[in-house]
Write a structure and sequence with these properties.
By secondary structure, the protein is an all-beta fold. The chain has no helices and 3 strands. Residues 1-5 have low confidence and may be disordered.
């Protein structure tokens, strides 16, 4: 039986992963950031909608030449 045959307990959630790749004319394509989204959905007025999105982005490469402005320091 498919695991999708019955709705899971609690609200529907989804986890997605992202990798940001960038290049410049004099710089080859390379990863500069990676991260993940954790989304929670809810049904309103008969339609599924985002109820919450949490984003976590981690720098993984040298983005110094890829940003229009310097990155904010924490």
């Amino acid at each position: 039986m498919s695991p999708w045959s019955y709705p899971p307990p609690g609200p529907p959630v989804q986890r997605s992963y992202v990798t940001v790749l960038q290049a410049l004319p004099d710089l080859p394509l390379q990863p500069v950031a990676g991260g993940r989204y954790h989304d929670r959905f809810e049904r309103r007025d008969g339609q599924w909608r985002f109820a919450e999105r949490r984003v976590r982005i981690n720098p993984v490469g040298d983005a110094s030449r890829h940003l229009r402005q310097p990155a904010a320091r924490r």
